[in-house]
Hints:
Elements: H1 10-21, H2 27-34, H3 38-66, H4 68-88, H5 93-121, H6 127-155, H7 162-178, H8 195-198, H9 206-216, H10 218-234, H11 236-239, H12 243-261, H13 265-271, H14 276-297, H15 300-328, H16 334-345, H17 351-358, H18 364-388
Helix pairs in contact: 1-4, 1-5, 1-6, 1-7, 2-3, 3-4, 3-5, 3-16, 3-17, 4-5, 4-7, 5-6, 5-16, 6-7, 6-12, 6-15, 9-18, 10-12, 10-14, 10-15, 12-15, 14-15, 14-18, 15-16
Amino acid sequence: MRGGAWLRVAPAILMLAYGGNHFSVLLLLYRAREGYTSVQVDLLFALYIVGIIPGLLVVGPLSDRYGRKPLLVAGVLLGCLGSSVLAAGAGSVGVLGVGRLVSGISVAIAMVVGSSWVKELSTDVPGPVAARRASLSLTAGFGLGPLVSGLLAQVAPAPTVLPYLVHVVLTLAAGAALLGAEETRAPSGVPRTSLLADLGVPRDVRRRFLWVIVPGAPWVFGCAGLAFAITPALVAEQIGASAVLYATLLAVVALGCGAAIQPFAVRIGAATGGRQLLVGMGLVLVGLLLVALESVVRLPALGVAIAAVLGLAYGLSLVSGLTEVQRMARPDDLAGITAVYYSVTYVGFTFPVVLAALTPFAPEPVLLLALAVLAAGCLGVMAARIRIS
């Protein structure tokens, strides 16, 4: 396998991640133009989890059986379909919801099948570097989508249509590059086990997965949700007409910091005795406390600092968790265990809608402090398990 073979797969991962996240910076636009409530837009933000988690759990075992390329090509087509539906549905919560569901399935394919395929094509580098290639492709897409779509929504015509059409064109171009990629997982013929059995975490690593990976995983995308959905809304009145541009800035800062820290994950692990996951959770806790402070002071400049801290937490937690999971996996269950890991990470995208639903019952600072206490508990569980491992 040539050392650059993974570069044919990376653009498809990037563009599907782009399609999953560029919706986030348009949330305030939908509130202003269409009159949607905060609960509705936060629900739309989280709704593609309904597509992504089942997608994650199905596509991993399927690609282990039938190959990486057919599944990722299907993901490209679904990504284009999802953005097309979103472009047509600005005036309908129901149509937007369908578009988000379809986009979720496409992102699931990118994350599980794409990450596994990049690892298998990266025989020229150690495992942590292979994991970083996959996570950086995802992070670049998650950052590029909000940047391009946010700018288009702010300065170009048809702000609820044009961003999605641009994504469709770019995704089709990435799909064309994908067609020449080398398949690494030949179809295995008649399956020996059920899909559910293929999805399981190997028994010999199950305890570490449950007590080290699971407590930290939801905070990976919990950080993103807090940076993209909660923080801009806290200062919306202070920002006024520049709300979309401000949300775009926070998304770019968060994901830029997330990408910047990933190449240093190995060094952080070496400096901390393999405890880079704990460093990531520590950053999550700091970010949550800052969001709680922001809910009181409402300073746009603090929002930028919050995005940076949560971005660092996201990037370090994602690449460290993915490296750990890939180290646990056998060749026959690589995509399956990766799917389980990503499914747990996406629980964090429900944080904004849960907070929005609970706001009538408790003040925002109290809810955010409660979330910080929960994060501190998860950090304690992870630290205790790592210490005795």
